[in-house]
TrEMBL record:
<dbReference type="GO" id="GO:0008270">
    <property type="term" value="F:zinc ion binding"/>
</dbReference>
<comment type="similarity">
    <text>Belongs to the peptidase M1 family.</text>
</comment>
<protein>
    <recommendedName>
        <fullName>ERAP1-like C-terminal domain-containing protein</fullName>
    </recommendedName>
</protein>
<dbReference type="GO" id="GO:0006508">
    <property type="term" value="P:proteolysis"/>
</dbReference>
<dbReference type="GO" id="GO:0005737">
    <property type="term" value="C:cytoplasm"/>
</dbReference>
<dbReference type="Pfam" id="PF11838">
    <property type="entry name" value="ERAP1_C"/>
</dbReference>
<dbReference type="GO" id="GO:0042277">
    <property type="term" value="F:peptide binding"/>
</dbReference>
<dbReference type="GO" id="GO:0005615">
    <property type="term" value="C:extracellular space"/>
</dbReference>
<dbReference type="InterPro" id="IPR024571">
    <property type="entry name" value="ERAP1-like_C_dom"/>
</dbReference>
<feature type="domain" description="ERAP1-like C-terminal">
    <location>
        <begin position="2"/>
        <end position="96"/>
    </location>
</feature>
<dbReference type="GO" id="GO:0016020">
    <property type="term" value="C:membrane"/>
</dbReference>
<dbReference type="GO" id="GO:0043171">
    <property type="term" value="P:peptide catabolic process"/>
</dbReference>
<dbReference type="InterPro" id="IPR050344">
    <property type="entry name" value="Peptidase_M1_aminopeptidases"/>
</dbReference>
<dbReference type="GO" id="GO:0070006">
    <property type="term" value="F:metalloaminopeptidase activity"/>
</dbReference>
Amino acid sequence: MLACSFGNKHCHQQASTLISDWISSNRNRIPLNVRDIVYCTGVSLLDEDVWEFIWMKFHSTTAVSEKKILLEALTCSDDRNLLNRLLNLSLNSEVVLDQ
């Protein structure tokens, strides 16, 4: 987690590869113990399509723990428009549940 947060290129490359593999295969093979940092790093480094993919997965999963990780990852974007969109969507309790 620290390696990616401090900009370690190898960590960034690994996270980007794992996210890209997940998107292309639609099979999440990202180890559970690193999903939070991989999702967050992917959202912060890659394009809006990754944000949209994570948003779609947030809505399609029923696992509460996975929903939490996905929602937190969406906040990792540096794109003000995406963050503003997330904020507005989160105000609707039908889209993002209150709890």
